[in-house]
Amino acid sequence: MERINALSIDLEEWYHTELAGGEKSSFSQATEATQPILDLLDRYQIKASFFIVGEVAEQNPDLIRSIFDRGHEIGCHTFSHTLVWDLGEPLFRQELERFQSVMERILGKVKMKGFRAPCFSIDNRNTWALRVLADFGYQYDASIFPLKINPLYGIRGAPIRPYRISFEDVRKEDPQSPLIEFPFCPLTLWKLKIPISGGFYLRILPLPFIYWGLKRINRSQSFLVYFHPWEGSEKTPRLKLPLYNRVISYYGISSALKKFEFLLQHFRFMRVDQFLGLR
Fold it and tell me: Does this model's pTM top 0.85?
């Protein structure tokens, strides 16, 4: 039987990408960039998990209601898209409180089950964040990037399958933990691990390789895909950035939405919470 995978959308603004310098803009494209994704999900009858930045929700309440009314999961991507290890525990709690308040104003009492940290910013430097998530009633986290290939994020040795995450060491499983971790699964080729299931990696790698690699992963397990609406929009503004930052931020935007649709056509997907069997 064909495996079912999990699909997630990180709903943020184009200027939230970390390498863009963190400068906010009055120009918002969240609704315009997200609508084609919603249309594709409707076309292929797929429900996804949307990890939403609170300030984006605050500015686009009709978009949030549309996502919710279509049957997609609403999850948290912090309020301001600040890296969790830059916030510290008190400010992180404030971010979750603000996010919850905004969502209650828009949707009423909706239970938030899932969280994703901006730029995978949870690792063994800030395991306190996991306890905070549990305190707020979150049931799963999807922030662990289980390999280290750039200086910003990633942790070697973490599991590549869903597991109950230890609050002492994110690389270890704790059967008593109240929080499930759904890490990203890289393609393993001999001793080489290659991230292929979202973001820049989806944009830069050739589609035939992505298809082959995801099929290979599905031989033994399911995977979690992530996608940002700004990555699929030709109208995403291009800032004057250093070459490395510019390539990471913008390369492949012209073909990203087509790649995303290809995945919807050729793989089976569902919401993260439903994949994990959460209620």
Answer: yes
